[in-house]
# Entry
Amino acid sequence: MEENSYVKRQRFYKGIMLVLLTAFITFILTSIFISNQLEKDGTTNNSITSIFQGSSSLQKSLETIEDLINDKYLYEIDEKKSIEGAIEGYVASLGDPYTQYVPADEMEEYTEAIMGNYVGIGIYMTINTEKNLIQVIAPIRESPAEEAGIKSGDFITKINGENYTGDDLTKASNVIKGEEGTKVTLEILREDQTLNIEVERRNINTNPVYEDIVDGDIGYLGITSFDEGVAEDFKNKFLDLKEKGIKSLIIDLRDNGGGIVEEATQIIDYIVPKGKDILITVDKDKNEEITKTKEDVLIDMPIVVLVNASSASASEIVAGALKDLDEATIVGSKTYGKGVIQEFLSLSNGGGLKITIEEYYTPNRTKINGVGITPDVEIELETSVTGLPTDTNDTQLNKAKEILHQQ
# Structure
């Protein structure tokens, strides 16, 4: 959800490295391993071509351009900006919306978002490629965006009176963020309505797990994203519900855009018996890695998992594993279809690279990427709902309760 103050810095290399495809995925904020620093050889070289050593054709092309510019260019060259622009352009040329370069001056903010806290209005956004517009995946629960009435599926067409398209996603994200207590005005396109909504920026906690009891003895745990610490929070809140006498459980993953894979697999581990395959990942060399459960079952009761079109990535890992292993009934609408994993690498220049490294499959080797997961029981929301477990108009939640009462 970050803008690029740095998009401007890439102008110089747009012609060389293709137009920068900006993408988030607030998360998003999704399926990330944080690794150790990528380059620690202690060497520093401030030339553009030095960062691409090892790729002879690319290095040669850049050397030619660099020499020509050094010889002919009228104005002063900002070497740091040139390097940033070259890196950004190279990463953008991959055409992968999930692979992203983060400059050094944005690393702190980016890391805070991964850990589940940042200042903003609390929305997950993506590019709607069909309309080339910025679309809201979901507002974070109890966030300023939700309180202001922003909904899943809304299109953001203007920010503070300025027009934005899908190509401006990263820029828009940075503009929407800002100092705590300040306000931002969004023009929202919702079906045939155009709305202007003013939202106050606040510190956002993106990783709460919501607990409740519905119909007397059905536990409800809603997970908004799989950020750091979510699995432990989920466990503690389940144990609290169990002490209160619940007999079954609803896990609500609707509008959950994903997060850290290990948090998702840990939650599966609470449900699935030890030694079971729960996730299959495949890298570029077709090497497979199979993740198995390691712990004894914690949650031994009927479970329904709620999903929708905004349930993505780590949410699909959970739903897919529990569906394949017959540990839960999946209810709702078809999921988003993000079945790739990113690794986050810290670079020697202080920046970072989020890079797609693996595709993942369910235990039955069902493909997720670009496909999504079809629920066991498909049911659409028939009316606008609040997203709270007390909402009697929530047809998906009502179906979940009906299924659990029959078990």
The first strand starts at residue 32 and ends at 37. The two ends are 42 Å apart (CA to CA).
